[in-house]
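Notebook entry, structure prediction.
Reason for the run: the old model in the group folder had no record of what sequence produced it. Starting over properly, with the input documented here first.
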Amino acid sequence: MKISLKITKRNEDGSADAVVDYDNDGLKVIVQYGVVAMLKEAVSVRKRDILDRKKKKVSFEMQTNLEDSIEAFYTLLEDIKLLYKTHGDRKLPMDENEMANALLGLVTKGEMLAYWATNAYEKAFQLNDYASDEVKARRAVIMGWSEDDDDGRC
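New structure, fully documented this time:
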């Protein structure tokens, strides 16, 4: 096996230009070493990502729940498009009552989607009902709320 490194120029910053000479066995060793180095770096990056995610305290499940809640609003848009198409393209257009009922249904669905999206947001960022007792107590002091109010605040 042959691997040789010849420095052709030394740079002011401490780096150098070099030429590498190798035979077939040397090439195998260089490639194997490079693959191992890349795998070690990938594992290191993955570990850092996992640690960063733990530091953020937003779990993968919560992140997915937030994304699903946002995605659900797109189904509402599809429902509105379907209503528009059904009303406009049907042989006999929808009458006023059918249209009103369909629109009320879409409003109700939108309110439900907004509720669950807000709930997912509050849960992910530990707000309102999902806040720790310590946070609720600090919030009550800052806002001048009394625990006896029983009005749903904190």
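Summary: Strands lie at 3-10, 16-22.
The old model has been moved to the deprecated folder.
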